[in-house]
Amino acid sequence: MAILTRWLSSRLHKVVMMTGVTLLAGGFVRPLVAPATAIPFSLDSPVAAPSLPIEGESGDQFCPTDLPAAMDAIVGRSQFGTAAWGVEVYALADGQSLYTHNSQRLFIPASNIKLLTTAAAIYTILEQSPDRLWTFQDDLNLVNRDSHNGRADELLRNIGGQSRVKAMLEPLGVDPDSYVQADGSGLSRSNKAEPSTFVALLKAMYETDESELFYNSLPIGGVSGTLRNRFKGTVVQGKVRAKTGTLNGVRALSGYLETDDYGTVIFSIMVNQPGQSGQTMLAAIDDMVLTMAQLEACD
Q1: Domain for residue 146, yes or no?
Q2: Considering its fold, how many domains does the chain have in total?
Q3: Would you say residue 299 lies in a domain?
Q4: What pLDDT, in 10s, does the model give residues 260-273?
Q5: pTM value > 0.90
Q6: What is the Cα–Cα distance from 267 to 98, expressed in whole angstroms?
Q7: CATH code at 237?
């Protein structure tokens, strides 16, 4: 209780939330995908920041054992009384989950489903035409960084559909029963996935020879893609790479956070709450990321 009280007290002195989007360069010879279809981008788009960012010091830091109380305090905010939260935070340094909340429950993941589509596409190309793999970066950027729905759905069709995704990802340790994929983009509300699905995928992709290709396709907080206006001016600007997800009543963020004192943290955060303000959900998700950034190794 003392830890939670001390943490909440320190947070009262800071205003931390951001939201947003940007583009990185790219020109590319495309291996599998036809020209872009009529559906341009997802609902993952730039919006005004709900409050001012933190500048300067990262603030009080805390041990991994303190993280659950801090995260539970965000999940338990009064405005989320009707919300369904799914969260998993995994530390590469420890090789274990630091925090879970409904991490093996199915949620609508919105555009986070694109992570499954693009990872499976990488391994399909690697299997069928490995010499074409490194010309694939711009397509990955378009789907993950810029969240292009038409290209994502087309990519799924071109690699052989949902069965191909399961066949490519199961050997990586992604449980085929932990998600239901209805499309390549995440626009369908019939998509369902567990936070553990994305943590397993992100961990596997981080540890493979193709990690750089996948990692570089993700939006960067405060810098690029659908995260360009989020985390700007905070201690995690440039340190978080993650896929956003946006539908009415749905917000999601799954990716990597490079902390100053605790190495790389993999996370998946999803909230489903029909009728809730998107800004409110985004603010809470971003607060979780800023909270994770305060982790430090403790004896």
Answers
A1: yes
A2: 1
A3: no
A4: 999 999 999 999 99
A5: no
A6: 10
A7: 3.40.710.10
